Amino acid sequence: MPSFKFPFVFFLSSLFLHASLAEIVCEDLPPDVCAYSISSSGKRCLLETALDKNDEVEYQCRTSEVVVEQMAEHIESDECVNACGVDRNAVGISSDSLLETEFTNKLCSPACSHNCPNILDLFFNLAAGEGVFLPDLCEALLINPRRSMAEFMSGSEVARGPGVSEEGLLEDDAPAPAPNSLE
């Protein structure tokens, strides 16, 4: 009976070598894969602009202070970027995109919401920061897109901005029952 001890040890050692070489450091990532990536330390990478020595704008990848629970060493796939409607070249990420029906439709689509946990987690947290539960927004979008955007805006002082009342956002809308969370 042949011994598999040496090949198995060799296989394990190659895995450890590969793992040590594959460490993701945001500052080492090229700008075109920076956004929606997570470093080996579990912190989100973000794309920023800076002036180079010739005072020309250049893009740089930086490590944010935002830690992603239970996810590290992740570079988002092009499939998820396309399915979720996000832009890898966008500098900074804002909850403002949740006000755009086309974007929210893509984010809430099964192709994104069932396959892209990193992007979904990011926008879930952005929505929560605005006082909105993303699954409720997605469900409301399916039922009545205009109403869901109005509800999002009425739930967020930042989205509303100064001088806009909740009543003004909801006029001409018929009352609708509160949506339940998605699956």
From TrEMBL:
Source organism superkingdom: Eukaryota
Q: Which Pfam families match?
A: PAR1 (PF06521)
Q: Which UniProt keywords apply?
A: Signal
Q: Which intervals of the chain are annotated as region Disordered? A: 158-183
Q: Please name the InterPro entries in this protein's record.
A: PAR1
Signal peptide location in the record?
1-22
* Protein name (Swiss-Prot/TrEMBL): PAR1 protein
Species assigned in the record: Hibiscus sabdariffa (roselle)
